[in-house]
């Protein structure tokens, strides 16, 4: 019975913590649903897109753990990291890009990715209103990037609970 009680307690804690992330995840899904393939195509055609769009795409690159250039400061924008627009074009060029966003494996986000996202997310202009003004086409992607970072903070606490839960449920199955 002690195992059953412990499993129940761990399951309850994990469920409560994940529920806290649910509104942000739903908002991210709603934001992504506003992005259409034609929007991505339009952004890809931009010779020199607005800096905010390039930074939003850098965040997507980081979340998908794609290769990015060595971190250097942007010569044209003091205080900002140089963007990886070439890699972003490759990411957006994948015909499954929108589907990959919607089915993103959130459990793959790690401390390093979130640490690399921090300078982007902390920028004063990295907000939905500004992204909509610059290019409504990919503004939803900014919300998604923020939500994935927020989710990681909660999921980081939940993953060990999930792992322990799986072990305990295995022990319970053997005991029964």
Describe this structure in words.
This protein has 176 residues and is mainly alpha-helical. Helices cover 72% and strands 0% of the residues. It contains 8 helices and no strands. It has helices spanning 2-33, 37-45, 51-63, 85-93, 97-102, 111-122, 128-135, 139-175. It is elongated and about 65 Å long. The N and C termini lie close together (11 Å). The mean pLDDT is 85.
Alpha carbon gap, first and last residue: 11 Å
Taking pLDDT < 50 over at least 5 consecutive residues as the criterion, the unreliable ranges are none
Shape: elongated
Overall structural class, as computed from helix and strand content, comes to: mainly alpha
Describe the biggest sheet? Answer: none
Helix amount, in percent? over 70%
Round the Cα radius of gyration to an integer and report it: 19 Å
Our count of helices gives 8
How much of the sequence lies in strands comes to: under 5%
Question: Quick check: average pLDDT?
Answer: 85
Number of strands: 0
| Secondary-structure element string | HHHHHHHH
């Amino acid at each position: 019975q002690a195992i059953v009680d412990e499993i129940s307690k761990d399951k309850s804690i994990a469920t409560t913590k994940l529920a806290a992330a649910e509104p942000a995840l739903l908002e991210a899904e709603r934001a992504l649903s506003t992005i259409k393939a034609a929007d991505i195509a339009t952004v890809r055609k931009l010779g020199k897109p607005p800096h905010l769009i390039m930074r939003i795409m850098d965040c997507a690159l980081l979340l998908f753990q794609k290769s990015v250039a060595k971190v250097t400061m942007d010569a044209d924008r003091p205080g900002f990291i140089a963007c990886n627009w070439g890699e972003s074009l490759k990411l957006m060029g994948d015909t499954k890009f929108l589907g990959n966003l919607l089915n993103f494996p959130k459990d793959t986000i790690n401390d390093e990715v979130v640490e690399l996202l921090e300078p982007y997310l902390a920028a004063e202009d990295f907000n939905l209103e500004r992204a909509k003004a610059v290019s409504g086409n990919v503004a939803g992607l900014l919300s998604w990037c923020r939500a994935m970072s927020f989710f990681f903070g909660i999921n980081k606490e939940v993953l060990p609970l999930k792992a322990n839960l799986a072990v305990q449920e295995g022990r319970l199955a053997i005991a029964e």
